[in-house]
Amino acid sequence: MSYRLFYWPQIQGRGEFVRLALEAAGIDYDDVARRTGAEGLMSDMAARRGRAPFAPPYLDADGLVIAQVADILLYLGDRHGLAPSNIADRYWIHQVQLTIADLVAEVHDVHHPVDLSAYYEEQKDEAARRAGVFRAARLPKFLDWLEGAAEANAGEWLIDHRWTYADTSLFQVIEGLRYMFPRRMATLAPRYPALARVHGLVAALPGVRAYLSSERRIPFNTQGIFRHYAELDAE
Amino acid sequence: MSYRLFYWPQIQGRGEFVRLALEAAGIDYDDVARRTGAEGLMSDMAARRGRAPFAPPYLDADGLVIAQVADILLYLGDRHGLAPSNIADRYWIHQVQLTIADLVAEVHDVHHPVDLSAYYEEQKDEAARRAGVFRAARLPKFLDWLEGAAEANAGEWLIDHRWTYADTSLFQVIEGLRYMFPRRMATLAPRYPALARVHGLVAALPGVRAYLSSERRIPFNTQGIFRHYAELDAE
């Protein structure tokens, strides 16, 4: 089985949730657009027919093409044991992943509240209003819930005694939020010891450590989903 | 196995995607808050510990509690054969469901672009701008993709020769969009014959027909996700 991952080569974005799971598991993959540039991704997208992806990221597994981060991770989880096999844990981990996906969508809307195709600079007033609501209400609501999810397990990870794709996704969303909202996240940090625990455990996984220190890890920037604009952050 | 569905009793909302799959399959369920009122839902939410839902809808299957529409449908699909069993079709149908979920989230943001906790009337200007972008760009982009998904199968449904949970979800999203944007959807209709085909097939399923004509089907209204505000619609 050879994997080709298709995603924008300049950003972490949604593709990063897939990259992290693959890297943590030591699964080989070709991050196509890192070689070809965005043009290679766009021409691949344009050439696909039938069951084509709605948007990147998508994974081509010897011709089986899967888009949507949560669906890709479901597949990788099933195939490579990156998810628990018992029924209750299996749907629980997917539920955590889908809730993280909802959080990521809201993060994106903070800087693009009214026009997804326009620049942030064209919707700064609306973004400021949305960011205020996000920092005050939505962010703590999501983090409270994720903290509860991490507390629900007596073990170290979200489930039992080993990491799953939801752990790597939780790591990434914490990373992104710390980059985007450093002041707000510093204020909130004491409320979330279990999230800090899981974040630290993921960061210490050998595959993740190697990845984060490699040039394969693209730095956060203001082209991606998590964007640091100082005016959108506050304590 | 007995199912208890927890969702707001006054709206179709996200719960409707679960209700429709259950009704189409003839699976018995207790729509709890239709009996108890919203108070019953809220007190149930507040009492849950450990692996608690982030938000309704959630399904309690003899103590196994699953939230997130796509996760609930994945579970029902696995358990009741409402999804294909072969690998490629299985992840494809889930991918369609997740893309419909993204569309539903964008529909919600049309009337709540900057503050999820405030009334539509407090963000009408922002909503008007977002609605314009949605009608012109995002809606056709999603519908083009869904049309392609419906065309990708030579059979009648999204997959092969029988309905899956993605078909009932596709039906619901078309229903909702026709209610919310009657003028825009009328203009776009000729471009989407395959979507009309699947919509019609789902509407004719005996379980769905019976449900739609029952009082279990709550009419669309301006409390739900799909809301008709004439000022947000246009040809």
Automatic annotation (TrEMBL), chains A, B:
Which InterPro entries does UniProt cross-reference here?
Glutathione-S-Trfase_C-like, Glutathione-S-Trfase_C_sf, Glutathione_S-Trfase_N, GST_C, GST_superfamily, Thioredoxin-like_sf
Signal sequence residues: none
Which residue numbers delimit the GST C-terminal domain?
A: 86-220
* Domain GST N-terminal residue range list: 1-84
Q: What is this protein called?
A: Glutathione S-transferase
